[in-house]
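Practice problem: predict the structure.
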Amino acid sequence: MTAPGTTKTASTGRRRLHPAWIVAAVAFLALVGAAGFRAAPGVLMVPLQQEFGWSTTVLSLAVSINLVLFGLTAPFAAALMERFGIRKVTAIALCLIGLGSALTVFVNQSWQILFTWGLLIGLGTGSMALVFAATIANTWFARSRGLVIGILTAGSAAGQLVFLPFIALLAQDPGWRGASLLIAAGALAVVPLVLRWLRNSPADVGVLPYGAEQESAESTTPDPAPAASAAVPVDSPNAAVRALQVLKRASKVRTFWALAAGFAICGATTNGLIGTHFIPSAHDHGMPETTAAGLLAVVGIFDIVGTIASGWLTDRFNPRVLLAVYYQFRGIGLLVLPLLLGSTVEPSMIIFVVVYGLDWVATVPPTAAICRQVFGADGSVVFGWVFAAHQLGAAVAALLAGYIRDATGHYNYAWLGAAAMCTVAAVISATIRKDAAAKSGAGKDGAPREPEAVS
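Answer:
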């Protein structure tokens, strides 16, 4: 037997690292590079207001456009990866992020920030959304998919961790334009690695997905949802048709709507509120922006731990129960946040940051797992649509929170409303049906199925 993560060459019998792990490593770096902008709006919002006099609502609108495109691009990007390959789509996405961020240094009117932050970066980040992690895991791994999705999802947190303190410092000296150029450089630096090492499928290098050889040796029963074809270029309908066909099929399954509703609330309470408005809210309470940015960086550190741990747990426990627990803990944190904000960092705020970091995107591995279990080969594209709901929720929350801040002078109502929504998401997740397969005749004629594996 070969050690986990290795393969044995036919000619020499020597063990070598399975190519899937190299692809996963490059995908992780790509997600780090693409994540640079995710930290930017919260840090750059105040400097842009000070220079141009734009309202919080206007800047929140730019973020909302970005989040909407971030979400709506995701399912089409998954289909594009199936049609043209992971490598091409990823490289183009990183170039769009770099271009949009670099052009931001020339803006002097509000519509221009809508174009750069909103349109260009929204399209680029949408093509590098979390569906990318699901596509890599489903294509290259027959085992440990939950763990791999957790690791890749943590790449977004790592991007926030790597960029956020530097963005905050550059936003003060020499200014927000230097911070924008740093984001552009981070995205473009990964492109050569993607073009060299990010292969489209195991067939490109003549291997099976990681774990497939062990499975075939241990059992004669094939994997009911093999990962061999998830992102291989194929002669299929164009990406838009493919994505819409999958949406039509998924919309007939109750689990899809439960996941979409929960993930919309997830997006509202992460990217929409904390990611966009935590730093401005802390600034309202007298906390320096660099200090608030440092707190979000700590969120990023613990998000890496939490998301990888969530992937490990997803491989072993009921994903719908995990989702319910994650959402409820997040709601408790948001409920007490208005009491914790102040001009200095107290121990209670550190506890909040740690707990919220562990829970930040821990929802991704169990959500992706349910999509794969229920929808089989369509799982990656379905997850793209569920992620679209995530970003629509984030966009609405970002805009509403900006309006609440302008109308009331504070964010308290936004935090409390988000806490209530998390309880709703916990209830929805806990009631995802586990017995639908027995009642629906799942698996017949290629229809989506809700298997007992979800329970």
